[in-house]
Write the structure tokens for this entry.
Amino acid sequence: MSYGSAGNALPLNNFRTTKTRYSGIFAWIFSTDHKRIGILYLISILSFTSVAIVIGLLMRLELIAPGETIVKPETYNALFTLHGVIMIFLFVVPGLQAIFGNFFLPILIGARDVAFPRLNLLSWWCYMIGAFMAVLALFTGGGAPDTGWTFYVPYSVRTSTNVSLAVLGVFVLGFSSILTGLNFVTTVHRMRAPGMSWFRIPLFVWASYSTSWIQILATPVLAITVLLVAFERLFAIGIFDPASGGDPLMYQHLFWIYSHPAVYIMILPAMGVVSEILPTFARKPIFGYKAIAFSSLAIAFFGYLVWGHHMFTSGMSDTARWIFSLLTFLVAIPSAIKVFNWVATLYKGAIQMSPALLFTMAFIFLFSIGGLTGLIQGALATSIHTHDTYFVVGHFHYIIFGGTGFAFIAALLYWFPKMYGRLYRMKPMYIGWGLMFVGFNALYFPMLILGWMGMPRRYYDYIPEFHFWHVVSTIGSWILVSGIILIAVEFFRARKHGEIAGDNPWGGVTLEWHVPSPPPHENFDVIPQVTWDTYDFEHGLPEKTAEGASHP
Amino acid sequence: MEKQATLPYGKYVMVWFGLLALTALTVTAASLHFGKWSVLAAIIIATVKSSLVVLYFMNMKYEEKIFKIMLAVAILTLMVIMVLTFADILFR
């Protein structure tokens, strides 16, 4: 199957060529167009991410042999903190929501923009300012923070490194997240096109909507918590630090009240992307639309009730431990509902292979491994054994990289022709996928084994028994990164020199495929009247709906 | 959504006096040493105060149903979080 061959020029009137009040870079950084803001997020987020990838590589290289290899222990502590802070707060939390949510959510519901375009621009500025503060913290004060991305007290209160500025950066980043959430909730409620009822909105929108609620309700808890850490450091107010009468467990509660739902901020939009890609390439409606939509809401809700499973060995009460363990098992249900529905969507579909679909299927596989290893830690007895080991690191990366990371690339592969109007070559993407899939498993599966053997997380050194699996893991990191580089280079080439994609290269039915690639400013000349169900390949294809419009 | 119910000033002033009275009650209650009930007392008074602010100063009493539901979701989430936290603190 070949895609593309749709003429040799991009539409003259697209959102990139629109004249605005400003020119040059200012036409982008002061733009209130949701698509331009989406692209701004794409560029800024990927820039930070590439730094964190390099740091990850350096960490793996350090661990290729016991003892000192390339960096000192203190540097290693700073490296894993930096890797975590950048990847979590600057990549996976805003990631899909800010980039693809911004670019596609209004188009998918048939709107011209988000409800509050200026607030949207402000949220990007908050992101940049927060990110700048976090980066500044590395080079000022007592040096790069060495606490890990969780900033646990009492250590984060006592370390001489520049934790205060880093947490203030996180505080500002929180505003970016809250504003985006607020914007999207309002947009979905108020700006849907006529006929776009709640059960016709695409599943990416449902996922994005659920995510937005978590952003609004959970992020303030993190904001106030990190602010209290800064106060504790500056004024010793005695709320967390036991030395001045505080309760360090209270910090862990507050931190995870945000940070567990935040895991769902990271994964829910990824699940939404998967639910968009599968029907398009299976050429049939998604199996169990309502089940997937409601399971997004259920995950968003249950996500609030399970934070205590991060604290099973912290000295929390037994009552709380079994309650949180039980609730943790419950959250597996809506996740499994999604997995079963995705697989059922492929069943008897007219499957058309594409790199986007391949990444999507890798998502389902890797996310399932991540989910099932999560249950091992959700059980109280086994959690004691695996707590604070590489097993947790392996599990987490299967969910967040194997899940969100792979879905992120799938989303970019799926929507790149719409965003840039051009197609990439399939071959480098397929090879890139192969390298990434092999490299990923070679990098992270040994972590599950090492953790089970007893290798503690965040350690700089280890005993000789662990050597073999560390070598495998490090070699895996090289294979993985070579795949990422191959894909990145092809995207970079294709954005200027790729074949012209045309409006609907994949034959999709959702509204973004009804507008030109790249879409014009304000998306639609006339707001569409939606008369077909989402993923209805019989009536929803752009040419069919155009026929319907001309013969009402 | 455009219909903005404006209350007579007198009502706002009354709510304000109510809030002042409740603040005085908070201070008094804090000096009474209720033991472990002091937290509960503080939470109850604070709830009444914030309800007054939300209902009258933020006009929630006269808003559309959808906003009331959204507010209820937020409050429910906060309550669930508090209850679960107390599952640790009360049984530790």
Remarks:
- Chain A has a mean pLDDT of 93.
